[in-house]
Amino acid sequence: MDKTAERLVRLEGVERMLQMSMERIKIAMIIPKLLENPEELKRVLKGTRYEEVLEPIDNMIQYLGKQTGRSKLPHDHTTMRIVDFFLVNHRIHRFFPHLMRSLEDRDRQLLAAFHFLLESAHMHLHRSSRSEITKERKLHAIYHQNVDIQKKIKELKASLAFQKVIGKWKTAAKGIYLMKVEEDLANKKWQNNVAIQNEIEKCNRTMRIYHKGSLDRQKELEEELNAAREAYEKMTHKHLREEMELRSEKNKLLLQLQSILKKYDVSLGEKMRENIEQEDQYLEAKKALDEFMVLYRQEERVYKAVVVKREEEERRVQQQKLVIFMMNRAAAKIQKYWRKWKKEQRKKNKRMAKKGKKGK
Question: Among the four 75, 143, 225, 293, which has the fewest Cβ within 10 Å?
């Protein structure tokens, strides 16, 4: 553990000790009031981890009841154990805030003084500013210089004690040297005080400069805030005027929309009436069409039967004519080929007859 951590641990221990002392003072102030009203003490502490003190208190109250004419607490082991229990468990006073609020002025002043002492100790133990460190370093340096000078003085005094036989002039010289050393020490102390005062004045000047700059900056920010507020107000007025204009325009458009909706409702009613009339006409026409379609289908069936029968008759006649035509055409072609073949046969026979005559 380094020195800083060790110092922090020690400081925390000191603060805990002071805080615990303050808590013990609080519980010590209300112990008589707690013992004056044991019933309330039992009601509050019953069921908590502090209820073990109730039995010794009952024993003490029974003892006082037996001792007729005695109202003061006895200075015995039981009483000291009860008081020690309350001091060790000093958090019990938090169960009785009304007793803490009803303390006497003297007790309140004592608690306030101890609270001030606790805060002062906390501030003193935790101060760590640069100025305090600088002062401590300078005082530490002066202390070491003083220690060195004291050592030198002791050495000189010792040497003077051993050298008295040398002469008074050496003693006077030593005295002058000592005076010079003391004057140097005083001068150094004065210089250190002057340096510390200069540092304090320098810090004060710096703080005044920073304060002045802060005031100037605050003034600039106030001016910017005023300008922004004025611009915001102007913009707000402008937006209000625009909103009023838009609202009037909206109202006009709403009126126009309402008139259009009325016209639409009127025209829609007329269209609906026309549509209903047209639907009635359509139903009548559809009814007439259905009746016509019944007659049409009947006529169509008769027509189809007649047409089919006639088409079949015409097709049969045409097929007969086609067969006759084909037979006639085939007979004509056969006759044509037959005449042609006969003619060729006669020509061939004539040529054969001529060749036979020439051979004889």
Answer: 75
